[in-house]
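Lab notebook, bench 4. We co-purified these components, and the gel suggests they stay together. Before we commit to crystallization screens, I want a quick structural picture of the whole thing.
Request: model the full complex, all chains together.
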Amino acid sequence: MTDKLKTVLKMFADFDEQELNVLSGCFKPRSVAKNSILLYEGSVCKEFYFISTGCIRTFFMDKNGHEKTRYVMLDHYIGTALTSFIAQKPSIELIEALEDTELLAIQHADFYRLNKQMDHWKDFYQRILEMAYSFQNRKIEQLTTLTARQRYDLTMSETPELFQRLSNRVLASYLDMREETLSRLKSR
Amino acid sequence: MTDKLKTVLKMFADFDEQELNVLSGCFKPRSVAKNSILLYEGSVCKEFYFISTGCIRTFFMDKNGHEKTRYVMLDHYIGTALTSFIAQKPSIELIEALEDTELLAIQHADFYRLNKQMDHWKDFYQRILEMAYSFQNRKIEQLTTLTARQRYDLTMSETPELFQRLSNRVLASYLDMREETLSRLKSR
DNA sequence: AAGTGATTTTGACCTGGATCAAACACCGTC
DNA sequence: GACGGTGTTTGATCCAGGTCAAAATCACTT
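Here is the predicted assembly.
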C-alpha cells in the first residue's frame, strides 16, 4: 500500500529512495466507513490524503441547503480541502467518504515541516498547487460557458468512472445541476 | 517604481535587500496602451506582470463569442495567465490592457531559473499559487451559489474600485452576466 | 454643432433548468 | 413477501437571466 504511495509521489517530484521512506513514515493509514465525515464545515482542515482504495469528496452547502461537490478523489488520488488546509482557517467545505475507503493521511504540521526541510517536498507541493489551480480554472471555464448537457457529455467522456461509482445525487451536485435534471439528461 | 515592486514582493516572501536588487533587475519596465493585447488566445504566456499604474485583465471567449473576465489587475497587483504560464502551453485566456498601463514584466525563463536558485523565490511562488487557488475556489463558490444580484452586491462591497474603473461591458463579463442585466441591476 | 460610432439603457419575449410534488424502483431486514 | 427507507424518475409549473431589437446617451472628430 505504501508502494502505491511512493509511485504516486514520484510522479510529482524527484524523490530519492531515502526521502520516500521518510515520507512513508509521515503518512498514517486509516480506514473510513462509507458516509463518514472527515472534515466538518467550520473546523480547520489538518490533514492531507492519499486514497489507497475507495472514494472521498469535498463539497459545500449553498444557501438553499443543496450540496455542491467540488472534487472527487478516487483510488490513488491525493488532495484535501485545500483552502482551509492552506490558511488553517475554518473550512466552508466538508470532506466525506463516498465508499468504504482505505487512505493514508499526513498531518498539516508534518506537511509544513517537510516544506521547510525537504526541497523535493517543496517541489511536490508546488506541483500540487499548480495542478489544483489549473483544475479549478478549467472548472470555472466549464461552469460559465457550458450548458448542463454539455457538462454531462464532457464529464462522461473525460471521467466516465464517476458515472459508475457516484450516486446520482452526488454526480448531479458535481455537475452543478439538480438530480431531476441529471435524470432527464440520462434518458436523453 | 521599483520601490513599489520591492514593497509588494516583501509582502509575499522574506527577501533580503540583495535579493530584491536581483529581482528588480529581472523585471523590465514597459508601457502598454489602452486596448492593446498582451497575450492572444492560442499563444504561450511567457511573462509574469507587476502593474505599476493602470489596469489589465485576463479573459476568454465562450462559444457564443461573449467575453468572460477571470481576473482584473489594478495598480500594484501581480499576476498573469497562470494556466498557460505554468504549463507553457497555448493559452485559452487573453490578456488585455483596459487602461494605459505602466508595468514590469519578468520572463518565464527567468522566473523558473529563480525558482531553482533562490529559496525565497520558491516561497514567493508558493504563496502566489496558494492565493490564486483560494481566489479561484472562492469564485467557484460564488458562481454556483449566488444570484446575479448577489454577485453584484458582493463585488460592490468588496472591490468597489472595479465599478469605478471598468466599463459596463467588462464589469458585466467579470460578474458573469450580460450587460443588459448589469444595467438593470444598477437601476435597482 | 453636426456626424459617426461605441456604449448604455429600456422594452418585449423566450428558455434552460430549478422547484414542487407525486409516483416508482430498489433494496435490506424482520 | 410485506414494509419502511432511500434513491430515481416523471410531470407540471415557474422564474432569473438570456436574447433580440430599438432608443438614448456619450465621446470623438472634423
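The beta strands of chain B are 28-32, 37-39, 47-53, 56-61, 67-73, 78-79, 94-97, 101-107. Worth comparing against the SEC data before the next meeting. The interface with chain A takes residues 60, 62-63, 68, 70, 82-83, 86-87, 92, 122, 125-126, 129-130, 132-134, 136-141, 143-145, 176 of chain B (CB under 8 Å).
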